[in-house]
Amino acid sequence: LPRRVSRKLLPQQCLFNLRTDSGRSAQVFGQRCLNRHYQHVHSLPKQCGRRVWTRRGAGYGYGAHCLNKHGYQLARR
Fold first, then answer.
1. Considering the entire predicted model, what is its pTM?
2. Using the 8-state DSSP alphabet, how is residue 36 labeled?
């Protein structure tokens, strides 16, 4: 794929479903996973970042819906 297209494809293994405080589910790309599997983390929109709580404690992630609005897609491999 051309470099500009591949920058917008996010690794599928980094997408997680989480429950919000209100009981709804949200899809989030985990920061640690992205650091390991996606070389353009620094270019992700800051406004999509959020603090998340998992079974392992507090972490950081990027909202999938927000990233999608900014042109990012899930890589289907």
1. 0.83
2. H
